[in-house]
Design brief:
Blueprint (H helix, E strand, L loop, with lengths): L3 E4 L7 H13 L2 H4 L8 E5 L2 E6 L13 H14 L17 H11 L7 E2 H8 L3 H9 L12 E2 L12 H19 L5
Parallel strand pairs: 4-5
Antiparallel strand pairs: 1-2, 2-3
Helix pairs in contact: 5-6
Length: 188
Amino acid sequence: MKQDVDVIKRVEQRGDEAQATSAVLHNMPAALRSFLAPTFAAIRTRGGAVTALYWEGPSTTALSPVDPDLLAQVREWLADYFSGHFRPVPFPLVWEGTPFQQRLGQQLAAIPPGQTLSYGALAQRLQSSPRAVGRGVGSNPLPLLLPCHRVVAANGLGGFSAPGGITTKQWLLSWEQRHGQKGSEKMP
């Protein structure tokens, strides 16, 4: 099966939107700046579903276009997220992994913005071990869309495999906590 990838290019922003983005960027870890819609590095799709969202461009030279409507939905969702408006992901997501990873992805999607769940509690839900959950969370191909940053250790934040590591995770959690009350729609 052919996987489609689209590298996103920066587009012009208008008026208030540009000022709001500038304010967000001021305190945002550099690793997250690539996710500001529409400037994230790339997405991968298959069969009308998003299968990966990249912090940095994928290591491939053959890039195919994706459905422009799906791409627009991803851009809009990311713009909303970084504006402090948290809503359920309105487009299909597929974690192309093991059955365990797919179940893990469903559990990640159910953690509301501004809230966290421990690796141990997530392991109990999945009838697995915290270590297996940690490995699975670390391999999440859909960061932010399947919010792995909301999974924490019993005695602290735990790890974070994205660029910027714990600094990025702390920023995301703080961002959601600051904006969660005013910007969340009911999550599935």
